[in-house]
Design goal:
This protein is mostly beta strands and about 700 residues long. It has two helices and 63 strands.
Length: about 700
């Protein structure tokens, strides 16, 4: 296997996983709410963007994901498509504002981007694709760009106030603007002059033009309007209480409205536009606990999306069918030991054992690899679960969430025996395992020291807001917590033998994670601090008597609860991820970036020569810690099928995994393509499921 890794082609692995010959796309939807959808009539594809920062492109006819790639570490809000080319303009957040980025959907390459401190008011391509126009919050808010290159075009430098909507004539010779002060204006592109203007309704949100080009369609908090484009006067109105938003189809023949009152049912209602009138169509009740987050129209009907990443299609009568959904299982935790990966979900524990996963210097050749898999029932049914392998013990399990805590141990052989070790009167935040002792952290603020042989509590300490702990020796442990006052500290050293507690001064408002290097006697902390009214994540190295000597090794402006640490006790290397798809390593005073994960990272752990991350979409990424390269991606699905993708261009699946895998060679796709990329193992053993 070492030779295999040395011979592979170095490629950046993204949401669409590209190798030397094949491109892999996992057929699943977004891991959270879909905030933007746009149908591209030219390519007959649907584009969607979500809170996960991923842009997905769908073939509605086949039900397949054709492209999936990261746009941002932050949510996507709006998508606009080029009329002819497969290019998409995407509005997403960034750390200190917003960015519009224009991408080629076929190559997944960034063409150009524009940054803004405040969210742009409107943007779109012109109908012939020559211009890309943006309205921002400046007084002269309308800006023209070359649609292909993003180069600024010196048109209309004067004459505009704040514009929130524009539309071109089909020939691109003229265009119309709407200003929220209540003004519709027509302009000539050739001489850059105003043609005419007249007053109209104020502060409504335009969403389209009717098919006969006579009316602009818009809405406010309780009305949908048709406004005559020749006079600015109201042509028709629909009054709707608790209107969240409305969307017009691309031809301007109909609209759909979504209402969500504080009391009563949420509804989706469709109306046809007949000249200068609205005609009622269908209206259906939708689940109020699953709010609609986006609408768009395709040639085959209305599409809606919800906060779970599900996309629905509606017939002309309002009948709903599920088109795409998130098929990935929700993984609550992972753990790894030697050559064994354990994955926990609310109902099952999946365990994979193979030399393929083992230390690089011990890996067999590909033809000698063996793989065994076990699927075991989660003993804490319908609960998120924490996992931790411990040498010579087995796999420790405990429930997360609101359920009262308990600690169980699963054997380390066939994983068929589970015994309960102890229980707690309150839910657990976390369990920390070390050779001299274990520490449990309860939501009540109680930290307990447990004896590894009997699991009895030998000491307990109570302090509100405890988040994490580190074991120093059999009598000493550290707690990280929320700072309770300006004169307090979030870091405490506790003597479990004497009960003495020592406050260690620290400027953080909260210590969120910590790791202790037992050989070097170095403590690493990850905390959130306030600097100039902004939150910063700060990683510190502490040494000396009572850990009183501190050095900041990294700081970044954010306060993501996905921030996490991992420590390689053998090589004394610290790894950290701070709510993005990037992992950093710190060793001998130097910080190095590892190759990026395709997803936002929630948790990292390191063992032997490998680093693992559990990602925000419940996928798993694996790095070679020595080379800093991503070498594996792992996806577990709701039916417990799974896919393993290697950097060498091979894949392996169990169960129905191939049903969730799209493999492309250029534009070629299908079962005749994927056969040659299957990974072969010498021996495959599937452990019998435990009931």
């Amino acid at each position: 296997m070492k030779k295999l890794f040395a011979a592979i082609i170095t490629l950046i692995i993204t949401g669409s996983v590209a190798f030397s010959e094949a491109r892999y796309v996992i057929n699943t939807s977004h891991s959270g709410a879909i905030r933007a959808m746009e149908y591209h009539q030219n390519s007959k594809t649907l584009l969607s963007g979500g809170e996960d920062g991923i842009l997905r492109i769908w073939d509605i006819e086949t039900g397949k994901t054709t492209h999936s790639f990261r746009i941002s570490d932050y949510p996507i809000h709006t998508i606009k498509v080029h009329p002819d080319k497969n290019n998409a303009a995407v509005l997403s957040e960034k750390k200190n504002g917003f960015v519009i980025s224009v991408w080629n959907g076929d190559t997944e390459k960034l063409l150009y981007e524009m940054s803004y401190e405040k969210r742009p008011l409107f943007f779109d391509f012109s109908p012939l694709g020559n211009y890309f126009v943006v309205c921002d919050e400046n007084w002269q808010s309308l800006h023209f760009y070359n649609a292909g290159t993003g180069a600024s075009i010196s048109k209309f430098k004067t004459g505009f106030g704040i514009v929130t909507y524009f539309t071109f004539s089909g020939t691109e010779k003229n265009f119309m603007t709407y200003q929220p002060t209540g003004k519709i204006t027509y302009w000539s592109v050739s001489n850059q002059q105003k043609i005419t203007e007249f007053p109209t309704e104020t502060t409504f949100i335009p969403i389209g033009i009717t098919a006969d080009k006579r009316n602009i369609i818009g809405f406010d908090e309780n009305r949908v309007l048709l406004i005559d484009l020749s006079t600015g006067k109201e042509s028709a109105v629909i009054k709707l209480d608790s209107l969240v938003f409305s969307v017009a189809d691309q031809e301007g023949n109909s609209i759909v409205c979504y209402t969500r009152p504080a009391w009563g049912s949420s509804r989706i209602s469709r109306y046809k536009i007949d000249g200068s009138k609205f005609s009622p169509g269908w209206s259906i009740t939708v689940d109020k606990d699953m709010p609609v987050t986006s609408f768009t129209f395709s040639e085959k009907g209305l599409l809606s999306a919800d906060k779970n990443g599900t996309i629905y299609r509606y017939s002309d009568s309002g009948r709903r069918e599920t088109l795409f959904q998130n098929t990935l299982a929700r993984i609550s935790d992972i753990s790894f030991s030697n050559d064994t990966l354990a994955i926990g979900t609310q109902n099952n524990i999946v365990i994979i054992r193979s030399s393929f996963l083992g230390p690089q210097d011990k890996q067999a050749t590909l033809s000698e690899d063996e793989l065994s898999t076990f699927t075991r029932r989660n003993p804490f049914s319908n609960a998120d679960i924490g996992l931790s392998f411990f040498p010579d013990k087995g796999l420790y399990l405990w429930p997360k969430g609101d359920r009262n805590g308990a600690l169980s141990l699963m054997d380390n052989d066939e994983f068929s025996r589970v015994r309960q070790c102890t229980s707690f009167s309150k839910p657990l935040i976390n369990m920390i395992f070390s050779a001299p002792a274990y520490v449990s952290l309860e939501t009540s603020g109680v930290a307990r020291v447990l004896l590894p042989d009997t699991y009895r509590s030998s000491f307990q300490y109570t302090a509100q807001g405890i988040n994490t702990a580190a074991i120093i020796d059999k009598d000493l442990f550290l707690c990280g917590r929320n700072k309770l006052s300006e004169f307090d500290s979030p870091l405490m050293l506790i003597n479990a033998k004497s009960g003495e507690t020592t406050i260690i001064p620290d400027s953080a408002a909260v210590i969120f994670d910590m790791k202790y290097d037992t050989d070097k006697k170095v403590l690493y902390t990850l905390g959130f601090e306030t600097r100039d009214n902004d939150y910063w994540t700060v990683i510190k190295k502490r040494t000396g008597d009572m850990f009183s000597s501190e050095t900041t090794i990294y700081s970044e402006k954010n306060d993501s609860t996905f921030s996490t640490l991992a420590l390689d006790q053998i090589n004394h290397t610290l790894y950290f991820a701070l709510g993005s798809n990037t992992v950093y390593s710190y060793s001998n005073g130097a910080i190095t970036k590892l190759e990026k994960s395709p997803q936002i990272i929630k948790k990292i752990l390191v063992t032997d020569s490998k680093l693992f991350s559990l990602n925000s979409d419940s996928s798993i990424t694996v790095w070679d810690a020595g080379s800093t390269d991503v070498i594996l991606h792992f996806y577990l699905f709701q039916d417990m099928s799974w896919i393993l993708l290697t950097r060498g261009g091979k894949y392996f699946t169990q169960g129905n995994g191939e049903d969730y895998l799209n493999v492309f060679e250029g534009t070629r796709f299908g079962s005749n393509v994927i056969e040659k990329y299957r990974l072969k193992f010498k021996t495959l053993n599937r452990g019998k499921d435990s009931e």
